[in-house]
Amino acid sequence: MFRLIFLFIVLGLGLFVGTQFSDQQGYVLISIANTTTEMSVTTLVIFVVGVLAALYIAENIIKRGLRASSATWNWFSVRKLKRARRYTNEGIIKLLEGDWQAAEKKVTRWANHHDMPILCHLIAAEAAQGMGDETKRKKYLALALELDKNSLAVEITQIRQMVRNNQYADAHAHLEKLKGRYPNNTIVLNLLKKTYQHLQLWTALDELLPKLKKTKLIQNEEYQTLYYQVQLGKMEEIGSQKGTSGLLAYWSNLPKKLKQDENVVRLMVEQLIETKGDSEAYVILRDSLKQSPSALLLPLLTEIHLPDTYPAIVLLEGIVKKSKDHAEANSTLGQLYLREHKWPEAQNAFEQSLKQRASVTDYSYLADALEHQNMHQAAGDVSRKALSLMTSK
């Protein structure tokens, strides 16, 4: 537009000057080598304006030609891009359907024309993973890494596949690097949970649990399961490395709230029994039962190997005296009476237990106590009850 205005201004000035000096046109001589050209000033002005006009027209023709070529090129490029996207979308559908070969074929066919070829390579890697083709899986991941070495999507895809292939040590090494860069990424946190569990990194998982719960990656039920799994894992680790003394040191450093948790008490007692620390296990169990005679903890009294069962019997007799209808306390007391060959006392304890709930085990113990008192018919009746209870289940 500016050139056009300039051209008209020059043309106007030329006409004005030509009119003013029509009687005095002047003289112009142009000499190049052996060639000379003569013309008036007016003719020169008109010639210059004509040349400028011709150049302007030529420029527009060239521009339009180039624009047409560019439009044609863009049309083909957009057509290829649309086709690449369509094939990629179809490949994703095939991947979701589990048709791994079709998914790989579709996403790789036009990957070079896609505006995000890294996406095509990642989908192809997932398809190769589904087919179990390790060579192709690594090839597609390598192609994706060539496009973007710092892509989180590529790293997460790679780690997920390591976890699926049970390569937890390799996955853990990659995740530890990502953990610092993406501390709140839910996918990274979930993958960390899986690797910690399989590698039995209980301390690390214990530190991770609050964040998993805060981000709602685990519900309360799973949180409780993992929480006690972590406690057991830590105790087993300490027990295998440091034995009874290590477990007692760990117990002494636990918060009071944990020491009052019957599940934690049960885990600690079981681990102390494993490390032959039965006397220490009894002390912890006794203190807990004095505070609350838990049905979960009472059976552990029969698993502890004590040189003298008298203290345990006294403890149970005190619990039964306060709560005569405590089925688990009566059952545990009856078992300790059997060890001491106190048949009448055992009989009474099991009868009290069976009044509260039917138990095949207690019926069997009761039959044993009756047999030792030569009460064969009663023992037979009790055995038949136990058998009928087993068949009814």
Automatic annotation (TrEMBL):
Occurrences of domain HemY N-terminal (ranges): 26-132
Transmembrane domains' residue ranges: 38-58
Principal localisation: membrane
SUPFAM superfamilies linked: TPR-like
Membrane topology: Multi-pass membrane protein
Compartment(s) of residence: Cell inner membrane
TPR repeat residues: 327-360
Function recorded in the entry: Involved in a late step of protoheme IX synthesis.
Name by which UniProt lists this protein: Heme biosynthesis protein HemY
